[in-house]
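TL;DR need structure tokens for one chain.
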Amino acid sequence: MPEQGNFSKYLPMSLFAPNEPVPFSKSRLTLPNLWNGIYNAYRYIKEIGIAFGGSERKPITRKPNVSALKEMTDKGELSPFGRTLQGAMDGSQVVDLGCGQPKSSYMPRVVAQLFGAKSYVGVDAGLSSARAERVNEFGRQGDHSFRSTFVKGDMLEFLKSFHREGEEPIVFFIEGIEFDHESAANPAMTANYMRSIIQEVSRISRPGDHLFIGMTVSFLFPAADLPTGSKWGAQAIDPADFGFGLVEKNTMTTADPKATVSGNHYLWVRQ
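>> reply
TL;DR here they are.
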């Protein structure tokens, strides 16, 4: 069973459209951050890899500048893809699969709250608590209606026992997942696991529900979008084969001075 985690710092580059790179607060100079930075540098130097390539990176506590993102949302300074996702999230429940640790993985739930979602549920096998909750973490002062709930558990097992409550649509979020070294070394095993994830999401989904796929889960793309020679080519999982229609694809490239990485984000809708 692959380990889960979340590292979604690239998400705001895809969703917001400021004149400058999306702002993040500076990392706090703390002993855990210093140690994690040294650890990460060692892993990079040894070329053990990052997502789908080796040991998991240690999280650096570096919060997004939520006030700046909120101001950009209020002003409508969103990319076309960001506006599309905002429309999908407005009034929806967001289910973040492989959410990572709440203290270091912020962006999906920041975006959920800023884009008008009703609630957020994060699921990850590596969470420190069996269940936790945060109220109005990034919203308006005095607004206690938005709740972020965190559930410790395997993504697939969570989906198999998932019961819908209410009539609001759901946006399933798969972004920034990092697998352990064993999973990265076994593409077929990892792809089979993620294929089961998409099957369960399809089973649960009603027409009009959405599925967001982030760039680091690179075999959940249409095969034509996989890089030439990718070891994941034979494992491509196209959501279109599971009843989803592509709403929009956003491609980032380092040719854009506001982007630091190249890759795709996808938004699908259950048909």
